Amino acid sequence: MANSTSHIPIYSQMIAILRNALDMLDEQGRGEVIRFFLGQQNADGGFHDRGGKSDLYYSLFGVMLLRAAELEDGEPFERESAERNMNFTSESLLNLSQFISGQSTAKVSGFIEQCCLVLLQKELKTTRFSRIKSLIHLGRSFWKERYSINLSYRSFVLFLTLDAVLPFRGILMRVAERMLVRTTVDEHSPCSEVAARVFLQKMMNRKEPDELNLLDSFVGTSGGFKTFQHQDQADMLSTAVALFVLDYVGYDLRLLKPDCLDFIQQNYSDGAFLSGDGDQTADVEYTFYGLLALGVLGN
Asked: What range defines the domain where residue 286 resides?
């Protein structure tokens, strides 16, 4: 994946991995997952958070899942109901587009939410003026929150966003380099932050990122990756992010695959993937992470 001669945005690579995960499921499983995340969309078009309110963060996961469930090469995922599946995803995208067009950039609080808005506007093809305005606000938000969010994670999210919307790779590489020299992680850092730094290192074309072994040390004894090294229980977010980054750098996942697949399977419930840390709440966020992890292992 990382050695492709023609660059494919990381965001698009994630959608391809989600599509791969859906294709790994049998007909019943595919149908369950698609019905679940379609059911997470509110009447106003946005995907709802755990409180039921339409949310940009959850809507970004929703649009990526919708794109993954669309037809590819003429073959539907629900082969016995192709027309119905296509109509559902098209209608959901239209409704989501209406929700996004009604969002005021100035009222979107927080750097992560601004990134979500930029990606959603790009994916749903809102007006160029709206997208430029959102990028300006994104830059301001990144600087404003420079002390409130870990720099390695914030840099990863920024890179993921700019990589999807800007055509100039040279600028992105310089941004990654500047962020990399200012980030530090150690054995006390959470798995997601270590993974973010390893990702940035790979973006700088380093043959073997410095913290690769540190990232591998987050593997839990029962399968999956843990948020912190001292914990016993793995979780779906850390598992998905770690596997995605390890795959991106070309790490051999064969030894990790059996236990990670068991962890993913144990946390599947009626079309949704759970957080893995004991929380039984089903939502679109962890369903995204579960499919991402499954898709990586199926590559």
From this structure: 208-299
Give the containing element (helix H, strand E) for 49: none
Q: Categorize the per-residue pLDDT at 79 as very low, low, confident or very high, splitting at 50, 70 and 90.
A: very low
CA distances from 27 to 67, 69, 76, 141 (A): 18, 13, 11, 43
Per DSSP (E only), the strands in 130-264 are: 225-226, 234-235
Residue 144 lies in a domain: no
When divided into structural domains, the chain yields a total of 2
CA distances from 274 to 17, 61, 281 (A): 19, 15, 7
In this structure, is residue 89 part of a structural domain?
yes
Domain boundary among 49, 76, 102: 102
Q: How far apart, in whole angstroms, are the C-alpha atoms of residue 69 and residue 135?
A: 28
220 in any annotated domain: yes
Residue 256 within any structural domain of the chain:
yes
- CA–CA distance from 255 to each of 105, 258, 261, 265 (Å)? 45, 7, 11, 17
Q: What is the DSSP pairing of strand 225-226 with strand 234-235?
A: antiparallel
Which residue among 82, 102, 122 closes a domain? 102
Q: Which residue has the higher pLDDT, 197 or 33?
A: 33
Q: What is the pLDDT of residues 5-24, one digit of tens each?
A: 467 889 999 999 999 999 99
